[in-house]
Amino acid sequence: MSIDFSRRHLCQNPPALAGGRLRASLLEELSLDYIKMARAKGLSRCTVMFKHALRNALIPVVTQLGASVGFLLGGTVIIESIFNWPGLGRLGLQAIVSRDIPLLQGYVLLITIIIISINLVVDLIYLYIDPRMNSKGGTNHV
């Protein structure tokens, strides 16, 4: 499953895209054999939905939301410049225009730390959603 960031997605907000991705992923999960087997074993519909299907369907949604943070941070430069709002995006743009290299390096470092932190949070959410992704001892039982 690939993440599509085409032009038509730039005008939509990430939560709306995540909702559509969740619906598509959940419909795909509900048609798989292990879900049918869980229902055949007598598990309730809520148990199957929340304990089995939703957990696996959330993985692409979390990936998409984590990836959209970089686009949102990049969008701050444009929005703050157009509306003349003070903020980090405008500060970065002013550093480029005035050729203030130390300020620009600090800006890039801060944005990099934010994106790496978001990626770390996404990875921790993966471990919470699907404990099989925890590969202790070098083996992965997926």
Average pLDDT metric = 82
Overall spatial form:
elongated
Order of helices and strands: HHHHHH
Tally of extended strands? 0
Strand content: under 5%
Helix % is over 70%
Give a description of the structure.
The chain has 142 residues and is mainly α. The chain has helices at 7-10, 14-30, 33-40, 45-82, 88-97, 101-129. Helix 4 packs antiparallel against helix 6 (101-129). The two termini are 17 Å apart.
Summed up:
This protein is mainly alpha-helical and 142 residues long.
Which SSEs are present, and which pair or pack?
Elements lengths: L6 H4 L3 H17 L2 H8 L4 H38 L5 H10 L3 H29 L13
Helix pairs in contact: 2-4, 4-5, 4-6, 5-6
Which short descriptors sum up this protein?
142 residues; mainly alpha
